[in-house]
Design a protein that fits this description.
Layout lengths: L2 E6 L14 H18 L3 E4 L11 H11 L4 E8 L5 H14 L4 E6 L23 H15 L34 E4 L3 H10 L2 E4 L2 E2 L7 H19 L7 E5 L1 E3 L3 H7 L8 E5 L2 E5 L3 E3 L1 H8 L3 H5 L2 E5 L6 H15 L7
Parallel strand pairs: 1-2, 1-13, 2-3, 3-4, 4-5, 5-6, 6-8, 8-13, 9-12
Antiparallel strand pairs: 7-11, 10-11
Helix pairs in contact: 1-2, 1-10, 2-3, 3-4, 5-6
Length: 339
């Protein structure tokens, strides 16, 4: 059994070929797709966050809106770039969204990916300390965020406040109990996965790793997952973490599927360069259900993970993406023991 959800980048473009032509379209259709996914029996609705781009840049209003319109589906991000975040303000937003959804938030965070602009976090008012890097700044923000999510008081109260204070030091409000254990880190390497375990975060691994050892992507990712679990055991945490992987998977069951993806199934990984280093990109899957079942059964990383996030082509619209989810849940997942 696996948790199966979707992850959307929330692209929009003012093109006649897109079903998503504005930011309003992207936001409202994201809500509609989450509602449809819940009705289909999917387990998660996740959204990528990119700044300075025609994508979803401010996740918490969206997550809160989805939380208010749904009742069961997990709601998350994959991932929020912590270089841009005020960790205390973020803790307030996250706590509010989690309470609105009755504890369904699964918040993926990370150092972030290559940006649309040069050092965009500086425009948001954040600059690495002297002698430090932007990645180290992201981890510092993360440390503060994780600490305040514990709900412990740390701020000295005003002796003459506008409203009465509870006794003792004050904490960030609203506090949502349990949210601390539903934070994920988007890890791009095996070493970062081990660091994620040490910090007590769930592991989120996508369709690329920023290293290449020459083995197929799914095997390298499976090794990353095993290293995470080994490091988790060594750290001695008293709860069981979760692991997600992302994949592009398209069952070809009707004419639309064949028209969009019939010639695009790529059974080979891609190797390239990202941020000046080698990177390995995982393959996509597009085939008739019987063939998909055979191919997916060989993916060692999917087998090792408890959560599978399907990257959806959101610009094709809500109806088509709901169809893709339904096809996988109906024609593929049961044969693989995922349902």
């Amino acid at each position: 059994m696996k948790h199966i959800g979707f992850i959307s980048f929330g692209h929009w473009t003012p093109s006649v070929h897109s079903q998503v032509r504005s930011a309003s379209d992207a936001l409202l259709q994201s809500i509609d797709l989450a509602v449809a996914a819940e009705e289909l029996g999917a387990d998660g609705a996740y959204f990528r966050v990119h700044h300075f781009a025609r994508q979803l840049g401010s996740p918490f209003p969206l997550l809160a809106a989805i939380g208010a319109k749904t009742s069961k589906i997990e709601i998350g991000t994959g991932v929020i770039d912590m270089r841009y975040e005020n960790p205390l303000y973020m803790a307030e937003d996250a706590g509010a969204a989690d309470l609105i959804s009755a504890g369904r938030l699964q918040l993926g965070i990370s150092r972030g990916s290559p940006e649309q602009v040069v050092e965009g976090y500086r425009y948001f008012g954040y600059e690495p300390a002297e002698g430090s890097t932007d990645a180290e700044m992201a981890r510092t923000h993360t440390d503060v965020f994780l600490e305040v999510l514990k709900g412990e008081g740390f701020a000295q109260p005003n002796p003459r406040p506008m409203f009465p204070n509870p006794p003792g030091l004050l904490r960030i409000e609203p506090h949502s109990p349990g949210l601390r254990q539903r934070i994920w880190w988007g890890a791009g390497t095996r070493a970062t996965a081990e660091w994620t375990a040490q910090k007590g975060m769930n592991l989120m691994s996508s369709t690329l790793l920023t290293e290449d050892t020459g083995v197929p992507f799914h095997q390298l990712q499976a090794e990353q997952i095993q290293r995470f679990r080994d490091a988790w055991a060594s750290a001695g945490h008293d709860w069981t973490p979760r692991v997600s992987v992302s994949r592009s998977i398209f069952p070809l069951v009707d004419e639309r599927d064949h028209a969009y993806f019939g010639g695009q199934g790529d059974d080979q990984d891609q190797v390239g360069y990202l941020d000046g280093g080698s990177a390995r990109f995982g393959r996509s899957y597009a085939a008739e259900p019987d063939k998909l079942i055979e191919e997916l059964a060989e993916d060692e990383a999917i087998a090792a993970a408890d959560t599978l996030l399907l990257t959806v082509p959101n610009q094709l619209g809500v109806d088509y993406n709901a169809h893709v989810l339904e096809s996988l849940l109906t024609h593929v997942a049961p044969a693989l023991g995922w349902r």
